[in-house]
Amino acid sequence: MVKAFLRDYPTEARLLLVVLAIVLFLSLASDSFLTLVNFTSLLNNTAVNLIWAVGLLVVLIAGGIDISFAVAASVVQYVAVYVFEAMGGGNWAIGFIVAGALGIALGFVNATLIHHFRIITIVVTIATFNAFFGLLMFFTSGRFLYNLPDWWVDRIIIFERQTADGTWAELTLPVAVMAVCLGATWLLINRTTLGRQLFAFGDNPEGARRLGINIALMQFLAFGWMGMMAGIGGLMQVNIVQEVVPNALIGRELDVLAAVVLGGARLGGGRGSVLGCVLGVMIVALTQNGLNLMGVSPFAFKMVVGAIILIAISASNLSFARRVRPPVGGWK
Amino acid sequence: MSRLVKRLRATYGDDVLGLVAFLLLVVIGFSLATPRFLSAANFDSMAFQLPVLGLLTLAMLAPIISGGLNLAIIFTANISGLTLAAILNYYGGVDAPFWAFVLGAGAALLVGAFFGFLMGAVIAYVGAHPILVSLAMMIFLRGLGEFLTRGGDISGFPDYLKPIGHGFILGVPVPLIIFAVVAFAMHVLLSHTRHGFSVYMIGSNIDATRYSGVHTQRTLTLIYTISGLLCAIAGILMLTRFNSVRVGHGEALLLVTVLACFLGGVDPFGGFGRVVPVVLALVILQVLSSGLNLLGANQHLSTAVWGLFLIAVMVLRFVVGRVRERFEKRRN
Hints:
The structure holds two protein chains of two kinds. By secondary structure, chain A is mainly α. Chain A contains 14 helices and two strands, in the order αααααααββααααααα. In chain A, a hairpin with a 5-residue loop joins strand 1 (157-162) and strand 2 (168-172). The longest helix of chain A has 27 residues, at 215-241. The two termini of chain A are 34 Å apart. Chain B is mainly α. Chain B has a single domain, classed as ABC transporter involved in vitamin B12 uptake, BtuC (Orthogonal Bundle). In chain B, strand 2 and strand 3 form a beta hairpin. In chain B, helix 3 (73-90) runs antiparallel to helix 4. The chains are: A mainly alpha, B mainly alpha. The interface between A and B is large, with 55 and 60 residues.
């Protein structure tokens, strides 16, 4: 079984080794790293990024790229506040439906432009990134919203345990939602016909079309899924920070993209896995967490993270330099 | 008349004529909407604002034509500006002698070219995807800059720098002259030199280019080195324009430069794209933002309009292509 895993998932296997090496190093370097409290807080902090990461994964598998999802999440947060107000409060069930539906709607905007006007995904999502962000900032004037429904901002603890030194290790709702999103995405891309078609479509769109795969359905599925994850991630982000700030999430899209591609999803489509996605996000999160515990200046975090990503991609490409040469016609 | 149109189309291409028509339309629209649009003050303010975005867009252009992307341009510019600021401050800040500026500018250009070279070398010799490499470099440079400045501003520069950012030579704003010179140099480099020819070939088909005897790796390294150099020029100009350096200055321009390239008809897959239409696209973006500003809108609405404008242009290109296809089919 291990052999099969190594053969079928070479990228994931290598990443797993890197993660284990980081964990080993950090547990030797810092006493507080390998503790339940640190582990749970790490999960709480990465939940939203992971939700977005699996959404982006589906788009990448289908051969696209999405720059607009973090801004779309901000739009969903802002609109959702007003929807909940109009409905007289709302609750979690309504919250998920509203956030998911708004996210899907924004994803469909991208999919419509991509499919019906044959515009390439990076052009569309850069355009919608600017359009969504500009309109959001224009209509909100950058105003923060604090007056949110109680159910939305209350901490919901799904797991808690007191550790030996008296501190509490807790997992909050976003972690549970993240787990569901991961599971659902895994089911979608591995256990459904539609999901398998996504791989075929991403690898070779023209071939997939001639096989009779519904191209429009593929685009709407990929960007709809991404939009839904963007919306749900946005909903969870508010639960954590307890406020809605229109420009808080901008810039996160590139961090998530770097982590997902680090996790083996191919820019250009047809390859990627949920496990790789999780490992990619975890490498970045573990590095930051470890540097924090070792008392490194927070200003140096990003520098080290950038250097590690750069080294990781260099290392993972060098050993395969012959095999992963740029495909005919460039990289995209 | 039709002969004139035909000759113009043959000389400049459809994309340039289309953009000129757009530009005229926008200019006429704004002149009718507000009398202040066709004023010397407005033209001066546009001429001072355009060059920073323009230089950054030129830095983005060659990487896109070669089938890649350089997401690190803003932070390369910031780090270069930081180098100049540090050297000026070391030699007395406000009282720094002129040779300190020459030394600092030289060092800034060297730093910009160095990080570009590093990126180019990783892309060319490791074979990793340019988006990923430049993304990692972006995260690294942002971290490095924040680490060095602790997130603060550096200001206090000698008075003789003011003319570079705010002065006129023969009635033309100095930044515009710098931009025009660089744009002309890029035009010559891309359309009249061996290197330029190789850039287009690599963007069309990197494998075929390699087999035709072009040293693709050296060309790729040079593309990103020059891109870094242009970023450094933009960084120096930003320093003189804003009279301060902060890491993250101009961060919002990153995706606008990509937008300007696509608007200027650059093929997102690489292989096609010219300097002249890109400069025209930049002028259109600047006119849109200045005009909206005069009408009382803020920068955020301009951002939204830029995004919507790109969508409109892409949709229009699609429709025109479709109509032309039908027309030719009927003729045959």
